């Protein structure tokens, strides 16, 4: 009876975590869209028009109020609201994830490996599709003001596609292998182990992941390299901002390590019987 209750509770927590993750993703994408609107509004021609309206407002002693300025302020407020909401829902995801991890003290290793794997799969999915970082290239032009020359907002998966299309095939392949394919294979394999732990094949899976355990932080290194690459791709980068996708991916790395340890301990205790 207790096991059924825990299964129901953990299933509910995974669903709730998925819901919060979806909301965080949605808010992050809306933040991206709001930022793109502001970027388009700060192109050279539009910025010149905007400055002309500001000068007209000053000359008219405030009688002429720039509707462009009011619209820009409204978009900026919306942008900040989306960013706050994305961070808030991400915090909710991490809170639910922590509850799932703490359940390891109350449930058997097999059950924790299964639901820990499910939780890892959820945060990994959002880590792949949610924007990791936004990068802007600014230039201050006399009499015109701050002009945005370029804006980039990429998820991990989107960055791989961009690198591949730009000819950086080796870098794209390394990121694809170590930050997407291996993590997916690892998570699904550990969940499989928890279901068919009696199989000799399951011992081989855990043994394999123990062998590559020394590379467990390589995916973090690869993502860090990607972020450095993005932020240094232009000499005039003046603003680089980390987005919630990075937190999802880092959460996956931590959870996957814990689930791997759980699977190893589970199979070791099984051999001792």
Unreliable residue stretches: none
Helix count from the secondary structure assignment: 9
Q: Give me the secondary-structure category.
A: mainly alpha
Beta-strand fraction estimate: 5-15%
Shape: flat
How many β-strands, per DSSP? 3
Q: Compute the CA-based radius of gyration.
A: 24 Å
- Helix percent reads over 70%
Overall mean pLDDT stands at 76
Please report the distance between the alpha carbons of the first and last residues. Answer: 24 Å
Entry keywords:
10% strand, flat, three-stranded antiparallel beta sheet, 273 residues
How are the SSEs placed, and which strands pair?
Elements: H1 2-41, H2 44-59, H3 67-102, H4 109-129, E1 131-141, E2 145-155, H5 156-165, H6 169-195, H7 200-211, H8 218-231, E3 237-242, H9 244-272
Antiparallel strand pairs: 1-2, 1-3
Helix pairs in contact: 1-3, 1-4, 3-4, 3-9, 4-6, 4-9, 5-6, 6-7, 6-8, 6-9, 7-9
Question: Please, could you describe this protein's structure?
Answer:
There is one protein chain. The chain has a three-stranded antiparallel beta sheet, sandwiched between helices. A hairpin with a 3-residue loop joins β1 and β2. It is mainly α. α4 runs antiparallel to α6. It has helices at 2-41, 44-59, 67-102, 109-129, 156-165, 169-195, 200-211, 218-231, 244-272, and strands at 131-141, 145-155, 237-242. It starts with a helix and ends with a helix.
Summed up:
This protein is mainly alpha-helical and 273 residues long. The protein has helices at 2-41, 44-59, 67-102, 109-129, 156-165, 169-195, 200-211, 218-231, 244-272, and strands at 131-141, 145-155, 237-242.
């Amino acid at each position: 009876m207790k096991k059924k209750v825990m299964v129901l509770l953990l299933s509910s927590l995974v669903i709730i975590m998925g819901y919060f993750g979806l909301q965080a993703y949605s808010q992050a994408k809306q933040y991206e869209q709001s930022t793109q609107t502001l970027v388009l509004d700060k192109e050279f021609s539009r910025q010149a028009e905007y400055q002309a309206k500001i000068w007209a407002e000053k000359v008219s002693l405030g009688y002429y109020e720039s509707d462009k300025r009011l619209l820009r302020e409204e978009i900026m407020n919306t942008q900040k609201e989306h960013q706050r909401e994305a961070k808030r829902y991400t915090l909710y995801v991490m809170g639910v994830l922590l509850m799932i991890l703490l359940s390891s003290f109350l449930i058997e290793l097999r059950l924790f490996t299964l639901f820990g794997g499910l939780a890892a799969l959820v945060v990994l999915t959002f880590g792949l599709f949610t924007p990791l970082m936004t990068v802007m290239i600014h230039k201050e032009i006399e009499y015109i003001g701050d002009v945005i020359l370029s804006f980039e907002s990429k998820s991990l998966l989107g960055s791989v596609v961009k690198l591949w299309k730009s000819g950086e095939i080796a870098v794209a392949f390394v990121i694809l292998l170590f930050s997407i394919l291996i993590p997916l294979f690892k998570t699904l394999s550990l969940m499989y182990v928890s279901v068919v732990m009696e199989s000799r094949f399951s011992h081989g899976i855990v043994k394999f992941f123990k062998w590559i355990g020394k590379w467990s932080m390589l995916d973090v290194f690869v993502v860090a390299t990607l972020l450095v690459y993005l932020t240094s791709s232009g000499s005039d980068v003046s603003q680089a901002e980390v987005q919630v996708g990075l937190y999802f991916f880092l959460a996956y790395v931590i959870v996957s390590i814990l689930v791997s340890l759980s699977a190893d301990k589970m199979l070791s205790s099984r051999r001792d019987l």
